[in-house]
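Contributing new records

If you add data, match the layout below exactly. Sequence lines come first and carry their own label; structure lines follow with theirs. Keep one chain per record. Anything else will be rejected by the validation script.
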Amino acid sequence: MLYPVAIEKGTSTEAFGVVFPDVQGCYSAGDSFEQALLNAKEALDTHLELLAGDGILPPQASNIDDHINNPEFAGWVWALVDIDLEPYLGKAGKINVTLPNLLTKQIDDLVKAHPHYKSRSNFLQLAAMHEIQNISAP
């Protein structure tokens, strides 16, 4: 999953600050832009690990375009941090799901057309997480 990250430009005396708008409480910094980005990935990994330990699903990543014009981040630089969510979802278990044939075909066609969905199961997992987070959102 690609998480948008806002990076506040540093100076010769101040570090580059890092904020994940979609992950409340996840911050980091670095002495250079590159170090800030590397530290951001490490901070996100650690944050997601703590959430998983508390039985909380990783937050859904939004589109970076949703944040670019946010005045709170005016003048900040945007990047994306790619995180594999599998380690933070717990052990996989098989379930039996019954779906209408047409829906199954549409899912399979979509998975073929978009390789970032690794499989039908991955697509259904992401769809379920998205729906759970939409219902749980305040």
